[in-house]
């Protein structure tokens, strides 16, 4: 019986250690996602500001290029936000 108790305690310790490791990884990933979300939002805001400039608005090619880049960043932002929400469940 003593060996069984010791074995169970060791198993509990290892399970707890693994749980804490996974929680640290999850926390780190959440922090990385929050940083990415912040950066993407800033980049999108910058592009939106550029699209309001008369010289950009008048240049179809440049406006199209900026719009395409903005859409790509929006998609990345949505992916990051979905992953962030999933980790907060």
Automatic annotation (TrEMBL):
Coiled-coil annotated residue ranges, if any: 19-83
Superkingdom of origin organism: Bacteria
Keyword Aminoacyl-tRNA synthetase carried by entry: no
GO molecular function, one term: DNA binding
Residue ranges of domain ABC transporter Uup C-terminal in the record: 21-87
Entry keyword set: ATP-binding, Coiled coil, Nucleotide-binding
Keyword DNA-binding attributed: no
Protein's recorded name: ABC transporter ATP-binding protein
Native species: Bacillus cereus
